[in-house]
Design brief:
five-stranded mixed beta sheet, D-Maltodextrin-Binding Protein, domain 2, Fructose-1,6-Bisphosphatase, Chain A, domain 1, 8 helices, 260 residues, alpha+beta, binds D-MYO-inositol-1-phosphate, 2 domains
Length: 260
């Protein structure tokens, strides 16, 4: 694909995330009227998730009809030219009135993440990255934190019911035992964007899905950080563990998290 083709998709990730965010924001402000169900224990679904995903996939299919889409709500399969969409990441926050959620859109070509946009429509923050070009928050260049001491680090530890509670508490015990502080703010995509912007020093989760994390992986790397090989094996189709962080704590975080 030509450079212009990649650039057009990069611009589209941000424009579509912005438009989708505006729709999500309207639902958030009118959430008393919103239908809420559960896909499983602690796995929230609101009517906004489907509407936002339909808007995003509709825009992508109209502009790039040959590309594939994989979305949290409508599924899809990997292809050479594929968009990966989480219409609302942090759905439990969204449904409960906590303004920490986002739209996450990644574009991947031949297994390389080319572009990613993560947009929080409440704070108005557009996190974006383009492979080889950098990562930005509202146009400001992002850099991971310069931390070198694990005992001053804050690591976000994502959680879902897809892994047992004993495994989560063991992870937490190891990370905190090694001296870091921790948080769990409820949006994996924003957790990764926050690593890119130096607000978290690292992010770890024992299982996360591709739509939650693909845009964030590019962002962390482009901001000077590192991640594990999330796409190894069948990570795209079935999800995988994620570990990401700033270079100065890589050794300690890898040892404490024990995620390869
Ligand atoms: C979830 C959030 C959460 C993470 C879970 C995800 P959703 O996505 O990103 O922070 O820990 O693994 O499933 O359901 O809010 O889109």
């Amino acid at each position: 694909m030509s450079e212009a083709g990649i650039e057009a998709r990069h611009l589209a990730t941000m424009a579509i995330a912005q438009e989708a965010g505006d729709l999500a924001r309207r639902h958030f402000l009118d959430r008393d009227a919103m239908a809420i169900t559960f896909k499983g224990p602690q796995d929230w679904l609101t009517e906004a998730d489907r509407q936002v995903e339909d808007l995003v996939t509709g825009r992508i299919r109209a502009a790039f009809p040959g590309d594939a889409c994989v979305g949290e709500e409508s599924g899809g399969t990997e292809a050479g030219s594929v968009w990966v969409i989480d219409p609302i990441d942090g759905t439990s926050n969204f449904a409960r009135g906590v303004p920490h959620f986002c739209i996450s859109i990644a574009y991947m070509r031949d297994r390389r993440i080319e572009s990613g946009a993560i947009y929080n429509p409440i704070t108005g923050e557009m996190f974006a990255a383009r492979r080889g070009r950098g990562a930005w928050c509202n146009g400001r260049t992002m850099k991971v934190s310069a931390i070198a001491d694990f005992k001053r680090a804050t690591i976000e530890l994502g959680w879902s019911t897809r892994r047992g509670v004993a495994d989560y508490t063991a992870l937490l015990t190891r990370v905190v035992g090694a001296g870091a502080s921790f948080r769990r703010a409820g949006s994996g995509a924003l957790g990764m964007a926050y690593v890119a912007d130096g607000r978290n020093d690292g992010y770890a989760e024992l299982h996360i899905n591709v739509w939650d994390v693909l845009a964030g992986i590019l962002m962390v790397v482009e901001a000077g950080g590192w991640t594990n090989d999330f796409l190894a094996g069948d990570g795209f189709a079935r999800g995988n563990a994620i570990l990401a962080g700033a270079p100065g704590i890589k050794k300690e975080l890898m040892a404490a998290a024990a995620i390869g």
